[in-house]
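Hello everyone,

My group is preparing for a crystallization screen and wants a predicted model to guide construct design. The compound we'll soak is S-adenosylmethionine. Before spending weeks at the bench, it would help to have a computed complex in hand. I've included the protein sequence and the ligand's SMILES below. Output in structure-token form would be ideal because that's what our pipeline reads.
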Amino acid sequence: MAAILGRAGTTATGGFRRHHQETSRGGRRRDAVVVAAVTGAAPQEGSLERPAWSGETPVSRLVAALIAFKPLYSLMKLASREVIIRTAEKSNIPWREMTRKVLESDVYEVFERIRDPNIIYPDYYLSPFHAYDEGNLSWLAAAEAEAATLSIAKRAIPEATSIEEANQIVRGNWMNAIEEHHLKYSGENCQINDILDIGCSVGVSTRYLAERFPSAKAVGLDLSPYFLAVAAQKEEQLCRQNPIRWVNANGEATGLPPNSFDVVSLAYVHL
Ligand SMILES: C[S@@+](CC[C@H](N)C(=O)[O-])C[C@H]1O[C@@H](n2cnc3c(N)ncnc32)[C@H](O)[C@@H]1O
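Reply:
Good plan to model first. Here are the tokens for the complex, ready for your pipeline.
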């Protein structure tokens, strides 16, 4: 995947970074679309202690000093979790109820079927992330991921009057970007038959893709077997014409055959 992105031409439009893959081999995958949704400023290269946009103000220095003091950091994490959950619930996202349902489901059996026990995780993936000590490799992170995703959409579009509206805007823009790009580069007659969603998390983005392109076969790929188990468990309850396939792998070395997808999407995945 890294190689594909490396070769691809890149244009940025309305918060979306698009990679147009031109392979030299021809065939129907010649114009596969790679669309990456990025949330913040332009990506930076090199080893930075912190992103340049994060600034170096007295307040940021104070926060960094407080965070460095472990017992205080644990308290701050607890308090900020509480705020995040309460804010989501005030916006009608039943965070605790959604989490409980996942944790009390048969997701653990699905996990055993879906995980690749031979996967080698990159170092960054083994670090604490979003206040979860095990990062994305934990049941709590997986169980809370859908509520967190909904909550982020509302924060991104504060003027939206509901969570549904915020999601329609966020996901609608992304879908439209894919369709526009596909029309522009592949033409009306080129059908989207196979879609790969890299960094699919608990499958929210994959389900949007599968619903927009119901005749296509969609694959959701993620490093976290916990997230994929939540995605797969939900999918098993739906009767989709083409059920989504879930793959536990590293997006940088998927092991999937080259040129086998018409659309490759990375939605809200840090590049
Ligand atoms: C913010 S979530 C993406 C959300 C999802 N695409 C959506 O739009 O709702 C980022 C995901 O990228 C996954 N991820 C991070 N590094 C990865 C890698 N190298 N290969 C595959 N997945 C990765 C994480 O496990 C996480 O689920």
